[in-house]
Design brief:
Keywords: Cell membrane, G-protein coupled receptor, Glycoprotein, Membrane, Receptor, Transducer, Transmembrane, Transmembrane helix
Order of helices and strands: HHHHHHHHHHHHEE
GO molecular function: G protein-coupled receptor activity
CATH topology: Rhopdopsin 7-helix transmembrane proteins
Strand order of the largest sheet: 1-2
Number of strands: 2
Subcellular location: Cell membrane
Radius of gyration: 24 Å
Main location: membrane
Number of domains: 1
Strand content: under 5%
Organism: Poecilia formosa (Amazon molly)
CATH superfamily: Rhodopsin 7-helix transmembrane proteins
Number of helices: 12
Length: 376
């Protein structure tokens, strides 16, 4: 039965799947990949797996081991890294093997469990980005900083519960999924059942469309606030003080009287979150469209190139999990410094890097509102 594709049944239906007997035509409809593409995808996915695993493990260790790193936003970023890490451990290896063999060799039961885990981690990642973007909106636009580490942990528990609720039906076979060789992992297949369509639409709304629209709204509001604040500061340069400018969400200002303002970490993190949102959109929008078209279009699902299309889009999805820790390292100095300290400790073969030595940061002199101040 491993190579026998199953016809989809309705959402929540207890009826058994109807096997479709394999024919020469059905075999031709799932040609898999040519050898060059097979090698290319295998190498790329193996690289993504290693980077995603190592990078996200380091992020989780940094927040777990360093009490100074356990701010609300860092706890949320660590949970996002944990979801990406689990995706790398529990999904990527099996997709990699299937790309290399063009055959799902892990059984029908694990196919359903694998699909459930895939959507569990994906929904959780989207939910965490949504929470962070709303937090930035409240801080910069509403001037409300209500997200404490305790509340962040409570929100994490809530998002995991909700993600499990939406993804768990897949593990019990309702709705039914198409097993490979149609795709490198268990995916939604074409179905004419309205219940099947409803589940896929709900999943895509919860995972992508609702978070995307809310995040887009919050970022537009933040950018609009920053633009108005910049106009306000330039219109009244002599009356702008450090405490006021920090609340307005500006990175720095250079004025004729040598005013140099460094805003708080919370506001600086907005640019990082915007980059994470952009990566999320670029990596997951094509897969979302692909899942919807596959469910509703018989012709698209039975294209000869379906396996190849699925592999390209799956590679793009997994790329996000590898890029996130690289973005943290690039954009957040605390993560970068902690990473340089941790790497030689856990990876003994790495030399001690010059950046690992702890240095006392010398205060720098700035002029704020016409008076000289020393800040760290």
């Amino acid at each position: 039965m491993e190579g026998v594709p199953m016809a989809n049944t309705s959402l929540g239906s207890g009826s058994a799947p109807q096997p479709v007997a394999p024919t020469g035509k059905s075999s031709a409809m799932a040609p898999g990949l040519g050898l060059p593409l097979q090698v290319f995808f295998s190498l790329v996915m193996a690289t993504i797996l290693l980077v995603a695993l190592a990078g996200n493990v380091v992020v989780c260790l940094m927040v777990y081991q360093r009490s100074a790193m356990r701010s609300a936003i860092n706890i949320l970023l660590a949970n996002l890294a944990f979801a990406d890490m689990m995706l790398a451990i529990l999904n990527m290896p099996f997709a990699l093997v299937t790309v290399m063999t063009t055959t799902w060799i892990f059984g029908n039961t694990f196919c359903r469990v694998s699909a459930m885990l895939f959507w569990l981690f994906v929904i959780e990642g989207g939910a965490i980005l949504l929470i962070i973007s709303i937090d930035r909106f409240l801080i910069i636009v509403q001037k409300q900083d209500k997200l404490s580490p305790q509340r962040a942990k409570l929100l994490i528990v809530i998002t995991w519960v909700l993600s499990s609720v939406f993804s768990s039906p897949l593990a019990v076979g309702s709705p039914r999924l198409q097993i490979p060789p149609r795709a490198p992992q268990c995916v939604f297949g074409y179905s004419a059942d309205p219940g099947y369509h409803a589940y896929v639409l709900i999943l895509m709304l919860v995972f992508f469309f609702i978070p995307f629209l809310v995040m887009l709204f919050t970022f537009m509001g933040i950018l609009n606030t920053i633009r108005h604040n910049a106009i306000r500061i330039h219109s009244h340069p002599d009356s702008m003080c450090l405490s006021q400018a920090s609340k307005l969400g500006l990175l720095s200002l250079q004025k004729p009287f040598q005013m140099n303002i460094d805003m708080s970490f919370k506001t600086r993190a907005f640019t990082t979150i915007l980059i994470l949102f952009s990566v999320f959109t670029v990596c997951w929008a094509p897969f979302t469209a692909y899942s919807l078209v596959t469910t509703f279009s018989f012709g698209f699902y039975h294209k000869d190139s379906f396996f190849q299309i699925s592999t390209w889009l799956l590679w793009l999805c997994y790329l996000k999990s590898a890029l996130n820790p690289l973005i943290y390292y690039w954009r957040i100095k605390k993560f970068r410094d902690a990473c340089l300290d941790l790497m030689p400790k856990y990876f003994k073969f790495l030399p001690q890097l010059p950046g690992n030595t702890k240095r006392r940061i010398q205060p720098s002199a700035v002029y704020i509102c016409g008076e000289h101040r020393s800040v760290v």
